[in-house]
Write a structure and sequence with these properties.
The protein is an alpha+beta fold. It is built from 3 helices and 10 strands, in the order βββββααββββαβ. Strand 7 (109-122) and strand 8 form a beta hairpin. The model is unreliable at 44-53 (pLDDT under 50).
Length: 177
Amino acid sequence: MKFKIIIFAIFSLNSFLNAQDFRNDAFQFTITYPSNWVVKENQRNLLYDGTYKEFASVSINAQKLAVPDSFTVLHVGMKSIREMVENDVQYAYDHFTMKDWGRATIDGKTAFFFCYYYSDFLNDFMTKYVCVLYVLIHRGFIYTIFTTAPEDKFDLYEKNMQEVVESFRLLNKKIKK
């Protein structure tokens, strides 16, 4: 069981003044996002198809794991998750640099974050992106939350992207097996 949601903005710098909520009961989370951002569920390669040169996005992936409900990112370890992130990004992009990593808190739970740069060709133009990835494991689900923007636009979008990440909430119910 997998789920993917992508929220992205094109030339959108509005704050959370008319914010909207997104809720997913199957994967037990909610988020809040600016009302002029677009939500796409279960889309693949939407962000990387070369259609948009300038966008900011928050992508949330969720997947059920075959682990006990008490299993967390701490059981996997920072080094192991960092190696998986590096391998995945290096596989997809030739130009990749890990800038920073560490512990974060999402909805009161321990998560890991990874900040990295990567470059990709869009319409024959090399664009450098900044990505901040958060990894959280809770009640047998793994959640990955990506914030991405072109490097030269990242500062413009960072506040809104961070507000989306900070609005991520786990639902207080347990799925029956």
